[in-house]
Amino acid sequence: MRGKNRKNLLLRGDGMQAGIVVEHVAKSFGREQVLKDVNLVIPPGKILGVVGNNGSGKTVLMKCICGFMRADKGTIWVNKKRVGRDCDFPDRLGIMIETPGFIPDISGYHNLKILASLKGRIGRKEVLKSLARVGLEPAAKKPVSKYSLGMRQRLGIAQAIMEEPDVLILDEPFNGLDKAGAAQMRELFKELKGQGKSILLASHNAQDIEELCDDVHDMEDEWK
Fold first, then answer.
1. Cα–Cα distance between 99 and 126 in angstroms, integer?
2. Among 18, 19, 61, 51, which residue's Cα sits nearest to residue 207?
3. What is the mean pLDDT of each run of 10 residues along the chain (224 residues)?
4. pTM higher than 0.85 for the full model?
5. For a Cys staple, 97 with which of 87, 171, 186, 194, CB 3.0–4.6 Å?
6. CA distances from 111 to 39, 128, 130, 155, 208 (A)
């Protein structure tokens, strides 16, 4: 996306903007510093692509935004709430980080039904809708252990979107998808963007980044 007319979305301030605001975030593991002064903003209705080599900190950044890890320095705001102070885990957040874990001997529908019951926000109708949106047969009884890698990936996306979150964190969502499946998911993410979602997306595929993202954050730039 280097040659594209890019908007600078970084708006430093009091963190009172909806979506995601990351200000001066740093994270180390022992003597190894993984994140160094990361700053980014994802307003509603925007997709930010995060790129970088393996080990550059993409997944660590996502886990810090979700509250799964605590940053050593800096502040993270999700929908006007500061992570680690106003909330431990942001509300209205859909997540797919690394390989989603599902119960292997039951169907995709029953896996999502169990997850949906934890918060009680949605019911059968919404679960079935999310499966259909990602191209899975809602009524299929096949256990997840029999799913292909692409089907598992679709199921992971379905669980991320099923509660209609305001913010989405998607770590390599196209892994395992064939060409048609990747194209279908790109259209889904454009639709979600049009609904006003704030989306942080990591992908190794330049086409995904070029076609989907309003701006790109290169993790390697933090070290220059």
1. 23
2. 51
3. 39 62 96 94 96 89 96 96 94 89 96 95 96 95 95 96 97 94 96 97 89 92 64
4. yes
5. 171
6. 36, 12, 12, 9, 28
